[in-house]
């Protein structure tokens, strides 16, 4: 439980992900949580079958993107640490995204004016926060300058979210 709280603090830029050493079991639990919460969010937005496929594609892209980056940077031994750090923070943002979806549903049922704009703004804030977290993680792992870490985080976001989304639109 202590490790979980350290990863949650990482989402608030309070820990160094290099110092966090997860077990393989912990990493796979993070992946399982990501799959379940991602499928919930995508199923609320679109067709459950399409949402499930998109989340599976995102997971494959995340694995391959992180593996490629670590191979290029010659830091393969950090795979479990980096992957778990990113996925734990992604799980936090995904949990908040479920909350945003629930809030949007409630606002629609209550006929709240501008409910769509509010939920979109909250979603954009979550994406910006997510990119900032991944940027921080990359900066800590690879000693990137801030600009490079932001560019790497944005590229990671496009690879893991954009490509599967484009594939699903075909």
Order of helices and strands: HHHHHH
Fraction of residues in H or I helices? over 70%
Major sheet details: none
Mean pLDDT: 92
User: Per the principal axes of the C-alpha atoms, what is the gross shape?
Assistant: globular
Backbone structural class = mainly alpha
| Tally of discrete structural domains | 1
Number of helices: 6
Beta content comes to: under 5%
Write down how many β-strands occur, each being a DSSP E stretch of 2 or more residues: 0
Q: How much is the radius of gyration in Å?
A: 16 Å
Low-pLDDT runs: none
Q: CA-to-CA gap between the ends? A: 42 Å
Walkthrough of the structure:
The protein has one domain (24-169). The chain has six helices and no strands. It has helices spanning 2-10, 24-45, 48-72, 79-109, 115-142, 146-169. The protein is globular and about 50 Å long. The N and C termini lie far apart (42 Å). The mean pLDDT is 92.
Top keywords for this entry?
170 residues, mainly alpha, 6 helices, globular
Annotate the secondary structure layout:
Elements: H1 2-10, H2 24-45, H3 48-72, H4 79-109, H5 115-142, H6 146-169
Helix pairs in contact: 1-4, 2-3, 2-4, 3-6, 4-5, 5-6
Provide a concise account of the structure shown.
The chain is mainly alpha-helical and 170 residues long. The chain is 82% helix and 0% strand.
């Amino acid at each position: 439980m202590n490790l979980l709280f350290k990863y949650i603090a990482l989402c608030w830029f309070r820990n160094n992900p290099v110092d966090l050493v997860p077990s393989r079991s912990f990493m796979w639990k993070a992946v399982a949580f990501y799959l379940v919460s991602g499928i919930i969010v995508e199923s609320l937005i679109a067709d459950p079958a399409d949402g499930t496929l998109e989340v599976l594609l995102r997971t494959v892209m995340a694995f391959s993107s992180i593996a490629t980056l670590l191979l290029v940077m010659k830091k393969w031994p950090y795979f479990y640490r980096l992957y778990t750090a990113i996925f734990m923070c992604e799980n936090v943002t995904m949990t908040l995204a479920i909350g945003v979806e629930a809030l949007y549903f409630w606002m629609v049922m209550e006929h709240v004016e501008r409910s769509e704009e509010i939920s979109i703004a909250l979603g954009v804030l979550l994406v910006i926060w997510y990119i900032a977290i991944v940027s921080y993680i990359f900066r800590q792992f690879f000693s990137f300058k801030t600009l490079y870490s932001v560019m790497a985080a944005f590229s990671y976001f496009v690879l893991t979210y954009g490509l599967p989304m484009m594939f699903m639109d075909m």
